[in-house]
Amino acid sequence: LAKTTQPISMDSYEGQEVNITCSHNNIATNDYITWYQQFPSQGPRFIIQGYKTKVTNEVASLFIPADRKSSTLSLPRVSLSDTAVYYCLVGPNYGGYQKVTFGIGTKLQVIP
Amino acid sequence: DVKVTQSSRYLVKRTGEKVFLECVQDMDHENMFWYRQDPGLGLRLIYFSYDVKMKEKGDIPEGYSVSREKKERFSLILESASTNQTSMYLCAIQGQGLQPQHFGDGTRLSIL
Predict the structure, then answer these.
(1) In sequence order, what are the beta bridge partners of B41?
(2) Which residues of B touch A34 (CB under 8 A)?
(3) β-strand B107-111 against B10-13: which pairing, if any?
(4) Close Cβ partners of B55 (under 8 Å, ≥ 6 residues apart)
(5) What is the pLDDT of residues B39-77, one digit of tens each?
(6) How far apart are CA B92 and CA A20, in angstroms?
(7) Which residue of B has its CA nearest to A33?
(8) How do B4-6 and B100-103 pair as beta strands?
(9) Which of B16, B23, B36, B57 has the least CB density, counted as fewest CB within 10 Å?
(10) Do B87 and B38 meet the contact criterion of CB atoms below 8 Å apart?
(11) Are the beta carbons of B13 and B19 closer than 8 angstroms?
(12) Are A68 and A26 in contact (CB under 8 A)?
């Protein structure tokens, strides 16, 4: 099972672009990469999912290099409300469920 | 909008009690998950279920059991509550793939 490594914390000023990188060196062929956002006292919220190259939605972009051993979540022009913990999860999307493990996430603090 | 409803936001029980945490989904998804979240440890998988009456142990199943008699409902049971089970408990259902995508808001359980 692919293990993930993320920075424990990051600070950013409002209006800046934030990039959070997740390492997953032993990612398997059928593994997808999923990112979540969690605010205090709430459950995690799905942000974006990808398999390779680049995925973009209304909230974020996900960059995955060709070797897929890492991925980068990009949040454009962050605001104070983006202060949260961000989790990267790697696991298969087909072929039967396999246990995957959340890491401790990256705590993003947006500063005014 | 997807709804994952956990029966209680806050719960206080006593050591030795049998505790039931309920989770209900409105999406007819097969996969449902129970996690606990503790400071510094991230989300840890307790049990998951891939269909009615089907269950698999997660990473920390000791002291817990689960029940899935109907597809929409997944219950977590603490057979004899202990103080080290004081935690935030999160229920989740799968998204488009196999991985957890939609989470409930959590139950903060205190065992005294």
Answers:
(1) none
(2) 99, 101
(3) parallel
(4) B47, B48, B49, B66, B68
(5) 888 889 999 998 899 999 998 999 999 999 999 999 999
(6) 24
(7) B99
(8) unpaired
(9) B16
(10) yes
(11) yes
(12) no
Q: How many helices (H) and strands (E) does chain A have?
A: 0, 9
Residue with tokens 């049990």: B47
Chain position carrying tokens 């998804």: B29
In chain B, what residues touch A32 (CB-CB under 8 Å)? 97, 99
3-state helix, strand, coil in chain A (%, to 5): 5, 50, 50
Cβ contact B101–A32 (<8 Å)? no
Q: CA separation (Å) from A92 to A32, A40, A51?
A: 6, 28, 10
Contact B74, B90 (CB under 8 A): no
What are the tokens at A99?
């246990």
Chain A residues lying within 8 Å of B96, measured CB to CB = 49, 93
